[in-house]
Each structure stands twice: as C-alpha cells, then as structure tokens.
TrEMBL record:
It comes from Cupriavidus pampae. InterPro entries: Cell_wall_metabolism_enzyme, Dup_hybrid_motif, M23ase_b-sheet_dom. Residues 191-285 form the M23ase beta-sheet core domain. This is M23ase beta-sheet core domain-containing protein. PANTHER family: PEPTIDASE-RELATED (PTHR21666), STAGE II SPORULATION PROTEIN Q (PTHR21666:SF291). Pfam families: Peptidase_M23.
C-alpha cells in the first residue's frame, strides 16, 4: 500500500509506502505508548492512595495516643487534688499557716528563656509520654511521703493528748506541792508524791488526759482512788475521792468527769490528791500540767 501526502500549498508531495511490517511496528509502538501511559496513571493513583492510607493511619495513631494521654492527664489531676488535700492536712497538723504554704495555687516561676543548640526544641510524642509517666511516679512518691508525715504527726498529736495537761480540779488550789514536806499526821519530814488540790466536797474531778481506767478501788491511805493508764508507761492517780463515776476498763477522754472531791482515807479535809507516774516512778505533776506551748526552764526541770 502506497500513501501519498500532499502539502496544502501543493509545493511538496511525500510518498510513503506502508508495508505489512511497518504497519505491525506502528501498531506495536502505539500499544506500548498506551500501556506506558496507563501504567503511569495507575502508579500515580496508587501512590496517592497509599499516601492517603498512611495519613489515615497516622491520624488514627495520634487520636489513640491523645486519648491515652488525656486519660493520664485526668489521673494526674486527680492525684494533684489528693496531694493538695494531703498537703493541707499535713500543714494543719504541723501548724503551718495556709498563707505560708498555699497548696491550691500553682507556685510562681520565671527566668530567662535559653535554648540548647545541641538539643531539639520540639517535644515529641514519646518525650511527652515519658514525661507524663515520670510525673505520675513522682506524684505517687510524694503522696506516700505525705501519708508517712501525716501518720507521724497524728501519732505525735495523739501522744500529746495522752499527756496529763488538763487541770483535774478547775476550782481548787494547790494546798500541798510535790516533794518533801512535814506529814500532817506524824509531824515527820516525808516525801509527798503528788499535789493536793483543796476544793469543796463534791467538786467535779476530770481526767487530766485520755486513757483507760486500770484501778477503781479502796486504799487504806488513798481512800477511794482511781488510776488511769495513758500508755507509754504514763499513769495518773486520783485519790481521796468521795464518789467514782468510772469503773475498771472504761475508756476516758481528757477533761471527762470521772469522780468527785472527797476526804476518804488518810486525809484531813476535802481535797484531791493527784499523782503522775512514769514507768512506776512518781513525777512532779506540775511539770505535766504546765502550758504545752511555752514551757519554762523550771517546768522542764520538773519533768526530768
């Protein structure tokens, strides 16, 4: 087959003979071009699809991690509330004023902004995750520390409450102090192991500290007497009472009415004989009935 192509102006004529071989080659080349174009388009669409899938996976990963971190932030907020409550309780037990140490507000901070050139300034997701974990562990450690301090302060507070610091007779006066004196019956110089509070018969007697009644009995010298055990080897005795209002085994609190003033046993008149014993040894009650907040050197010596 012969193909003749004439120029539009008729100045040139091109003759081209189309053989079977040439036709097959032209068709093959055309098919190859179409296949290449189709492959290019397919690869382009596939690349776009893979990129979209990767972005979708990244978004899902971020959403999952953000949800986990939000949960951790909520847990940390709850722990901070617990720490605030513990801090307020501990500061109250320690006598710290809320104005001196405010747990409800973030402490003020400041300083110049400096960037380390060798380190990246951006905080990555793994870095944030590590920081949250460390913050949670620090919060737990501080909560445990606060709990230990709170328990210690509560124990000290309970120990202070077990010390005889309440006057056993409110309206009486010291008629005979602790130490050597002239016995009113024998006229001899003897050791007086307590303090005598003179008061009218029937005057209320209260527990000088909280404890357990371990004795409520008659004694030929003390008359009707009551012993209260306050723990740690500390015991108080209330003697010559006219009427007991407690019995052995009763748990009493500081300031609780336990008896009435009388003149039973070896007594010259209505009064309360009050003693303090530490590990079985009589001590000066004045050293315990002093002000707990401002003891004087004399009082310290009396306790020893």
């Amino acid at each position: 087959m012969q193909i003749i192509m004439v120029h539009p102006r008729g100045t040139r004529v091109v003759r081209f003979e189309l053989t079977r071989l040439r036709a097959v080659l032209a068709l093959t080349l055309m098919c190859a071009l179409v296949a290449a174009a189709a492959s290019g388009l397919t690869w382009q669409f596939a690349s776009r699809g893979a990129g979209a899938a990767a972005v979708a996976r990244d978004n899902d990963y971020l959403r999952e991690n953000l949800a986990v971190m939000a949960t951790r932030v909520g847990e940390l907020q709850a722990r901070m509330v617990r720490l605030d409550a513990l801090g307020e309780r501990v500061s109250g037990l320690a006598g710290i004023s809320p104005q001196d140490f405010d747990f409800r507000h973030v402490p003020p901070r400041g300083g110049p902004e400096r960037h380390a050139r060798s380190a990246a300034a951006e905080l990555t997701l793994p870095d944030l995750d590590t920081a949250l974990k460390q913050l949670g562990e620090d919060a737990d450690h501080r909560a445990d520390y606060f709990n230990v301090i709170e328990t210690t302060l509560q124990d000290r507070q309970l120990s202070d409450r077990r010390l005889p610091r309440v006057m056993p007779v409110a309206t009486g006066y010291n008629a005979s102090s602790f130490g050597a004196r002239i016995d009113p019956f024998s006229g001899r110089r003897v050791q007086h192991d307590g303090v005598d509070f003179a008061a009218p018969g029937g005057t209320p007697i209260v527990a000088a500290a909280g404890g357990v009644v371990v004795a409520q009995e008659w004694h030929h010298e003390y008359g009707n007497m009551i012993d209260i055990d306050h723990g740690n080897g500390l015991k108080t005795r209330y003697a010559h009472v006219s009427r007991s209002l407690v019995k052995v085994g009763d748990l009493v609190r500081a300031g609780q009415n336990i008896a009435q003033v009388g003149s039973t046993g070896r007594s010259t008149g209505s009064h309360l004989h009050f003693e303090v014993h530490v590990n079985g040894q009589a001590r000066n009650p004045a050293g315990f009935l002093m002000s707990a907040t401002a003891p004087t050197p004399t009082d310290r010596a009396a306790i020893r």
